[in-house]
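During the first year of the project, the team set up a workflow for recording each protein of interest as an amino acid sequence followed immediately by a discrete structure-token representation. This format lets reviewers and collaborators read both layers of information side by side without switching files. As required by the reporting guidelines, we include two representative entries from the current panel. The first entry is reproduced here exactly as it appears in our internal archive.
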Amino acid sequence: MEARNAIALLLALVVAASFLCDGVHSRHHHHTKRHSVRPPSHAPGPSGPRRAPSPRHSSPSAPPPARTPPSAPPMPGAPAPAPSDDGDNVYDVIKDFGAVGDGVTDDTDAIKTAWDTACQDDGEGVVLAAAGHSFLVHTTTFTGPCQGSVTLQIDGTIVAPSEPTTWPANSKRNWLVFYKADGMALRGSGLIDGKGQKWWDLPCKPHKGGSTHGPCDSPVALRFFMSNNVTVQGLRVQDSPEFHFRFDSCRGVHVDSLSISSPALSPNTDGIHVENTQDVLITNTVVSNGDDCVSIGAGTLNVHIENVTCGPGHGIRFASGAWGSRGRGRAWPTSRCGTR
């Protein structure tokens, strides 16, 4: 009896142990199955771009450029911002400063403001009067010294007012003046037109029978005063009311590849006049006018003139005292003078 009870107890224990083991295996299999079918926590979207993670040792990719909000237009009368072209400090008088360029509208303020803005830049600034436009400019002074160097690039046309009566009474001796504009350049492929005809026809002019001693002021087209290391290159300049160029109290002047013209009977229209100026180089230039091709005044030292064609006109004239009180300095004129 006892043996039968022991066998029954043993069988019960075996059955219980088998049931426990089957339960454990069953629960383990169920957990693995749930884990294998769980969806990923970061499923990709339908079509949106994703940034791939960078390798640990590679350089990080540059972030996309930030969008720059459009800038507000400049207030009237305020300097316009410089163009956004990287590395180019170009001040376009039409695009950036509101010049019209139709030859009728007064663009003096636009060009003067462009100069003043470029002059405050400590780099190399270019004031651009673009080709295909004509800019009416009244008498004005471009003043330095500038923080950097400024180039006035004339590829269009600059025209003076044609009526002498429209000029201010106290500003009839100069049109465009560059004062203390060290290191500047005036260049381009354009034209500077002084509109001198009505000035030449004033009754006070000697060839019109007027008094040679009375007041008869007429403007010099381009005057450089107390400006050092100046370059003028490539331009056509015509019909100045009086001298086309005048350099006073300057040092280091280079004039190259100009075409200067006015009628043969236009009075006192010297092509280039230098006075109290040192170290002047005039090259590759053609002057056709009604007075001196090049006139060299008192206090001028070290002038080199090479490959300059004069005529009609009076040739190259050396004023008394042109080389200083002791005759210091030298000139090397190599030019052709005569009728063309």
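The second entry, processed by the same pipeline in the following quarter, appears below.
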Amino acid sequence: MGKRPPIPPDIENGTPPLPPLPPPARPPFRPPIPVPWYAWLVPLIFAANFITFATTMYVNDCPSRSDNCLLFDVLGRLSFQPIKENMLLGPSIPTLRRLGALERRLVEEGEKWRLISCIWLHGGLLHLLANMISLLCIGMRLEQEFGFLRIGALYVISGLGGSIMSCLTDSRGERVSVGASGALFGLLGALLSELITNWTIYENKCTSLMTLILIIALNLSVGFLPRVDNSAHCGGFLAGFFLGFVLLLRPQYGYVNPKYIPPGYDVKHRKSRHKCYQHVFRFTSLAILLAGFIVGYTKLLREHTVESVPFRDVN
């Protein structure tokens, strides 16, 4: 006969079997810290504006030395207009007009490219320096946080919006306008909409909002100075404001991208990427932005204008 299997010692002693050991605890899961984008587009725009300005001064139609022209001989031809003609230390109006300055009459005659070319020209060295300092202060931070594609689109579309608004408010068709201020005000408007649409992830919300509103108000007040095209500032600001709701959304606090979750790891109470109000802002702003550009461009083609503002040269 076969032997009986041995009785476990714990049964013989009357003690229950030990429970199985629990599985080893999983290490705590922490999503990776976002890596800032490398900002290269804003410095490229910065350099392009200076190169364009140097080219403008190289081909500038400068009077003779007997007319008190300030000459800076670089390659023998880099020249500035007299101070009494251009206090910003820049070229003449005919030179700017020839190189692509914004002028409603020429736009209506078919030169639509001036709506974009004018944002790369500047009325003088002082005008250029003021705009480029603003570009570095605002644009570098935005590009590091949102990338070059969105900031590049924001810059160009805001500049286009400022150009359309400038043309629509020039009933006489005599204004010659240049400058990147419309695009820069678009970046300011995008900062404001970015703060509003990403409200839940900010600390010191009211302080940030009041500070930004104060900065925007101070910059808009510059538009009331003589020979400043404030309509381009307002048009660029509105375009950038609505475009910011479309392009500058951030994930809500606590959201974890599924590609960063380890296999088999169950994240409880997983949050959606964006809140409902962010989607409402996005689609509403996109509809307003498209309607504004379509209506404005249509009015420009049909030679309908709104009430004009005093004659100005730069923006």
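For the second entry, the following points were noted during internal review. The domain at 40-252+273-302 is CATH 1.20.1540.10 (Rhomboid-like fold). Residues 64-76, 304-312 have pLDDT under 50 and may be disordered. Both points are flagged for discussion at the upcoming steering committee meeting.
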